[in-house]
Structures are given as structure tokens and as C-alpha cells.
Amino acid sequence: MKYKINLLGRRKEQPLERLIYFMLNYLRYILVITQIVVIGVFFYRFKVDQELVDLQETVEQKKEIIQVSQPLIKEAKKEATRLNQLESIIANQQTFLEETDYLLSLFPENFFLNKMQVSKDTIFMVGYTQDPQSVKKFLDRLKKESKFKKVELKNIKKIDLGLEFSLELSKYKSI
């Protein structure tokens, strides 16, 4: 039997020696892991920077598209305004045509017009006829059908050619 006797006491380790031991054994693993994380963040940063550059290019392209299309949009708005004006003019003309067609469809054969004045809402006619009954029938029919809000015989007088009449029709109601 052999005994080993250590006559020297166990030496107490200093905190500096513990720190050096820790740094030599475990800190290298921490450094490697930290480097891997830093490299990962570095590559992620490249990716994010590229996305930012792509987004900025996209924004610039969109700005250019807007700048190029701005005159077209202004022109389209002008044309839309013109079309609206044309639609109102066409509607007025259509009402005028309906009014005139209606009036001519009722107009007796023995009426002769000397003057016809058409404004926005009124039609003023001056004419003559040989038959006084046709004036009455024409007025009665206009009032009966009530396409005009106001039908008024302004003046009637005897002339050489027969009876001269003045008629005012206003505010045509299209159906």
C-alpha cells in the first residue's frame, strides 16, 4: 500500500486566476457565438438596405408617373367639363326640338306665321288666318293637352288678310 501525502496545503485560487481560467475556457465560446450573431445581423442589414433602395426606386418611379400623368389628368378634367356643358346644350336642343315638333304637329293648315320668336322658356308667334274657329280650336287643344304651362292669346285683330293673332306659349313640359 502506497500513500500519497501532500505536505503542502491546498493553494487558494486568486480571483484573477479564476477570471483568466474562465476567459480561456468559456469566453472563446461566447466570442464565437457573438461573431455568428454579428455576421447574421450584418447580412440582414444588407437585405434591409437593398429593400430600402428598391422601395426608394419604386417611389421615384411612381412620382415620375404622377408627374407625367398630371397634364393628362388636367386635360381629362377639362374635357369632362366640356362634355357636361355639351350634354346640357344637347338637352336644351332636344327640349327645343320636342317643343317645336309638338307645336308643328298641332299647327293648323290655315295658319300663316309672320313672326316666331323663341327664347329659353317662351315661344311668341304672330300670324294670321282666315278662320277664327281654327284659332279657338288651336288654343283649346294646347290648353287641354297642357304641354305648356302658360298658353296665352295676347292680341287678335282684323286685317285685310283675315285675323291677325299674337300667341305666347311658355314653360314646355317634356314627358
From TrEMBL:
Keyword annotations: Membrane, Transmembrane, Transmembrane helix
Domain of life: Bacteria
InterPro entries: Extracell_DNA_Util/SecSys_Comp, PilN
Pfam families per record: PilN
Spans traversing the lipid bilayer: 20-44
Protein's name in the database: Fimbrial assembly protein
Lineage: Bacteria, Candidatus Roizmaniibacteriota
